[in-house]
Amino acid sequence: MREVYAVGVGITSFTRLEYPLSEIAAYPAMMALKDAGLSKVDHVYVANMAAARLNHQSGLASAVVDTLSLTPAGAEVIENGPASGASALKQGYMAIASGLHDVVLVTGAERLREVNNLEATDAVATLSHPLAEYIYGVTLPSLAAMFTRLYMQKYGVTERHLAMVAVKNHDNALLNFYAHLHEKVTLEGILDSPEAMTNNPYVAEPLRFFDCCPVSDGGACVILASAEVAKKLKKPLVRLAGVGQATDSHCVHERAEPTDLLAVRGAAAQAFKMAGVTPSDVNVAELHDAFTILEIAESEEVGFFKKGQGHLALERGETRIGGKLPINTSGGLKAKGHPVGATGVGQAHEIILQLRGEAEKRQVKDAKIGFTCNFGGFGNNVVCLVFKREN
Amino acid sequence: MALEIYAYKCRKCGQLHYPYRMVCKKCGKNDVFEFDTVPLPKNGKLLTFTTVHNLPPDFNVAKLTLGIVELENGMRVTGQLKAPSPKMGMRVTGKVEIVREAEYSKNFGFVFYPG
Ligand SMILES: [Zn+2]
After folding, report:
1. Most CB atoms closer than 10 Å: which of A23, A106, A139, A263?
2. Residues of A numbered 206-245 whose beta carbons fall under 8 angstroms of chain B's beta carbons: which are they?
3. B77-92: per-residue pLDDT in tens?
4. At a CB cut-off of 8 Å and minimum separation 6, what does A370 contact?
């Protein structure tokens, strides 16, 4: 297989965006083409989950490739729920590694806020099993909540640990211009004060408002290229060195140990093996903290910490910027935002900036190896990526 | 007639599935759709639960409690829970009732009660 490099990046603010979905996908692509110094690509992948359902638009990739005047390049939508972004990057990886293409543009976009929050929550809830989960009113927050209760009982994670994830990621988002929530939060405000119950009500007990990511619109783009192309461009060389993906039972209730996230474990192990590195080599990571508990659980499943000890590393400050392994420097889904189809591309965008040394006030010093975990469904389809800085 | 929800038993190896599979998750034999339906038990214990406050538009209630129940044969199901103060590990009994109603559809599913 040929080596694959990330040569250009672009992003929109993750927020409420009042312009058409195809433009949300195209705008970061224009930025990425400019960043890379390219004007042509061989192929376009558009990561998106809900265009047909929420935005009344099908065949989004055909619209995007034309909006960008990149025709006649091939173009497809890649849909893998909340992991659509990393799945699209994986498709781009395969296209270049195989020798089929030399330059592939991967852009992710979602416009959830064209509808109200409850309709958006329902659209995402259709990821659950239609007959054995969805009919009951199961939503992603409710699956995360039931998981959290088990995690608390088994490993001693408390509401305070969950709130610490929120505080950390909101702090990081304050350093990221493109983040959805620029709002400092404190343990006092969301947990300890008499007003905490008003500031931070339960969404799905024991998860509260500040344990859940916002509903965001947004787009993000990464351009992938062969070594031959990448070495002619003027950017620092960042290689997509490892790609892993694994699935797990559709219904959460069928998992033998319901506190395990086996698809996260499997996808991460594959990505590390392919890249020839171990979890302890990673300098910076973006994990899929759609709910605060997930940052803790994923930090264990991918191998950064022993199972049941992620919350202790968090307590010790190891996952803060300046700590041993900063996690979610961008603000994470929690505070940077979660425009579903764009999220995985957005994670890669952050890691590429970090490895280039372009992450400004949130830069992790000398970051050489970065990792992303993009979590689909409630962990039934997970894609992990490892990026390496060269030269 | 009491409504039932069924587990799907592989005719080759006996593995029970809920929800159904087209192919057995244990033996992987899939020449034809070879499963027998077996009613799921109704009694079990509550493994975990949550009270949800932001429900999809189909639900005209402010909040709803959901749970995962381990049935007495060891199989697990997700369902709605009608218990004033749910606790992990509590004994529950299931009934099959309407759990979701939209304009053109009625869905039946498990509702669990204490006891
Ligand atoms: Zn079988």
Report:
1. A106
2. 206-207
3. 999 999 999 999 999 9
4. A282, A283, A284, A285, A286, A351, A352, A354, A355, A386, A387, A388
